Amino acid sequence: MSNRFSAGLYFKVDTLSHRSVTGRRLGGRHKPVSDSVSSRLDCRAVRSSLSLIRRHFFLVGALVILGLMVAAGAWKLSLGKKQGPGGGGAVMAQGAPGKGGPRAGGPRAGGGGMPVALVAVQQKVFTDTIDVIGLAKGRQSVTLTAAATQLVDKVRFSDGQYVPKGAVLVELKATEQNAALVQAQAKLVQAQRDYDRWKQLAAQGFASKSALDQREATYLAAKADVDAARAREGDRTIRAPFAGVVGLTDIAPGALINPGAPIVTLDDVSAIRVDFEVPDRYLATIREGQPITASIDAYPDETIAGRIQKLDTRIDEKTRAITARAEFPNLNGRLKPGMMLRIGIARGQRQVVAAPEAAVSVQGASNFVYVLTKQGEATIAEQRPVLTGARQDGMVEIRDGLKAGEPIVADGLNK
């Protein structure tokens, strides 16, 4: 090369500080050139690439660790479902299942003993019913009121007393009405005398027909006045319209009664009448005279038998239900008007596979039972999912998952 470029081109790269110094010797002096700028840009690109690689490496590592954790959790969950609750998939049991559930003891799969009761799945007759709610009423029920404003004179009954039909319950003050009745009766006597006298005169020919008719009209008007006075007097006496039991009252002599104000209730509780609604889709399965049953929360262990007395002539357009009226005997008087009754209308019977309610384990939306199976010389209780149906008398209908005769654990497991 010429003497002018004798020093040549040189580069110095500091990898720790990422600095580049470029120069060339020219006449004993250093001058920057375009290659130094390019070198700096290349170093910056390398730095950016290394930083991006480090970030992506940490992100990929975190995703890989998270995936491993999810996979491990799913594996443990599937293993727990296979093993069943309590950390084991089966329970060792001994003894043969039988009716009444004999106790059988055996070690758990993971150790420890657990006595259980066994029972065989059986065929049972289930009765399909229509379950509705009804409100109890007396055979006849009424709230007695007064027809006029007046003071109470006498109260002739006690709270809860049985009264016959026509019995006087309350007497209101009737001084004015009594006087009006006496006056009307006096006028009637006088009108009757005049009428009889003119009747004799007309028979003898001394009185005209028109005069006799006038006296007869006066007599009949006086008789009607007496009837009206008696009716007004009767409004001051309140009687029982039918035989029954009176309720509680706060009415006492001297109280002022207004028309329409309640005085006391009267109920015929020799039988209880219940009105209830049945959806119209069951109309073909109900009829008048059909036997039904009722249960009451107050007496949970008792079932009352009755019959459907009448069906309404119309179906409610809003509820799409027909009203039925039933009657239940009430010989002991324990049924009270106003009680809520749970009515059961039988639709028919069917044979089903059933298991005791205590043998069915519920986990979320699923139902399980523990079925006894043989594994070598050991007898274990294996969890099996079942599809349940209706429940009656402590038994559950098993629609799928079990067969009649299979031994299951009735109770004793921590399900």
Write structural notes for this entry.
- The chain has 415 residues and is of the alpha+beta class.
- It is 26% helix and 43% strand.
- It contains three helices and 23 strands.
- It has a six-stranded antiparallel β-barrel. Strands 11-10-8-13 form a four-stranded antiparallel β-sheet, with no helix packed on it. A three-stranded antiparallel β-sheet has the order 1-2-3, with helices on one face.
- A hairpin with a 2-residue loop joins strand 21 and strand 22.
- Helix 2 packs antiparallel against helix 3.
- It is elongated.
- The N terminus is likely disordered.
> How large, in whole angstroms, is the Cα Rg?
50 Å
Contiguous low-pLDDT stretches (5 residues minimum) are 1-33, 82-91, 94-112
Q: Helix coverage percent of residues?
A: 25-40%
Helix and strand succession? Answer: EEEHEEEEEEEHHEEEEEEEEEEEEE
Helix/strand-derived category reads alpha+beta
Distance between the termini: 97 Å
Main attributes?
415 residues, alpha+beta, 6-stranded antiparallel beta barrel, 4-stranded antiparallel beta sheet, 3 helices, disordered N terminus
Helices, strands, pairings?
Layout: E1 9-14, E2 19-26, E3 29-30, H1 34-83, E4 90-93, E5 103-104, E6 116-120, E7 122-145, E8 150-155, E9 162-163, E10 168-172, H2 175-204, H3 209-234, E11 237-239, E12 244-246, E13 256-257, E14 262-279, E15 291-296, E16 299-315, E17 321-329, E18 340-356, E19 361-363, E20 366-375, E21 378-392, E22 395-400, E23 407-411
Antiparallel strand pairs: 1-2, 2-3, 4-21, 5-6, 6-23, 7-14, 7-18, 8-10, 8-13, 9-12, 10-11, 12-14, 14-17, 15-16, 15-18, 16-17, 18-22, 19-20, 20-21, 21-22
